[in-house]
Specification:
Layout (H helix, E strand, L loop, with lengths): L3 E6 L4 H13 L5 E6 L3 H10 L4 E4 L5 H14 L1 E7 L15 H29 L2 E6 L12 H21 L4 E8 L12 H10 L8 H13 L7 E4 L6
Parallel strand pairs: 1-2, 1-4, 2-3, 4-5, 5-6, 6-7
Helix pairs in contact: 1-7, 3-4, 4-5
Bound molecules: NADP nicotinamide-adenine-dinucleotide phosphate.
The site of NADP nicotinamide-adenine-dinucleotide phosphate (NAP) has 28 residues, from helix 1.
């Protein structure tokens, strides 16, 4: 029987890495991991060495060839059972009034177009094998306005809409599609946030702390495992917007 593969995009990132590590722990012997990175192959190879049975796929998912290469690499090793769309960018973090078309296009290509066409590619392959689970990594920033990040917010709001749409379209084929929406998480993406802003955000959370990458990974795994949840967006934000 072909091996069931869990593909994690952005596995070299703070959240993707935690998701990959948790899947390896919870599904050891049941799922092999495809660890995707864009260009930090060395970091991905190092992660692969710590997760037995995993393999690395480097691809720019903003391009159609990169997305196809990821699916082809998975099909060469087995069949796609799980897809976690964790790759993403948030910069340049421009407000709407200063937004440039090239930065808008880039953010949309990585955060929206890539997961959209990966859901299409992997969704069809998953239906062909009788089922699967997809989890998209959105953001609580999809739901409110603050300084900057206009394109980023829009990309994540649209990703949540597509999560529901694909849940509807793939459900009869046994494929569930959900999203997690983290609040602020300490990762390379947020490393340049000024301390004053960080403290303001932390103080605004009901739990007076941030969610960790491991907490986001737990929520992702819950959505992979629970066979009655599809079309959901699960916030993991330590109570940021209550
Ligand atoms: N950190 C937060 O506070 C936070 C909050 C809410 C939601 N999120 C979302 O969570 C996800 C992961 O974020 P993170 O904080 O873990 O970010 P991160 O540490 O900066 O990691 C980003 C990942 O995306 C990959 N990537 C970037 N551009 C790519 C492209 N064109 N094609 C393929 N892969 C690409 C990177 O690959 P390389 O390493 O090879 O460059 C890296 O693995 C993102 O979707 C982000 O929007 C983050």
């Amino acid at each position: 029987m072909a091996a069931a593969i869990a593909a994690v995009t952005g596995a070299t990132g703070g959240i993707g890495r935690a998701v990959a590590a948790l899947i390896a722990q919870r599904a050891s012997g049941r799922l092999r991991l495809a660890l995707h990175c864009r260009e930090r192959r060395g970091a991905a190879e190092e992660l692969a060495r710590s997760l037995p049975g995993s393999f690395v796929v480097a691809a720019d998912l903003a391009a159609a060839e990169g997305r196809q290469a990821l699916l082809d690499a998975v099909l060469a090793q087995g069949e796609p059972a799980v897809l976690i769309n964790a790759a993403g960018i948030d910069k340049p973090y421009e407000p709407g009034l200063l937004i440039r078309e090239d930065s808008f296009d880039r953010i949309m290509a990585v955060n929206l177009k890539a997961p959209l066409f990966l859901m299409k590619l992997f969704g069809k392959a998953m239906m062909g094998r009788g089922g699967g689970a997809i989890v998209n990594v959105s953001s609580t920033l999809s739901g409110h306005a603050l300084t900057g990040g206009a394109a980023y917010r829009a990309s994540k709001a649209a990703l949540e809409a597509l999560t529901r749409q694909f849940a509807f379209e793939l459900g009869r084929g046994g494929v569930r599609v959900n999203a997690v929406a983290p609040g602020f998480v300490e990762t390379p993406m947020t490393a340049d946030v000024p301390d004053a802003v960080r403290e303001q955000l932390r103080g605004g959370a009901a739990l007076a702390r941030f969610a960790t990458p491991e907490a986001v990974a737990q929520a992702v795994w819950q959505l992979v495992e629970n066979e009655s949840i599809t079309g959901a967006v699960l916030r993991v934000d330590a109570g940021t917007d209550l």
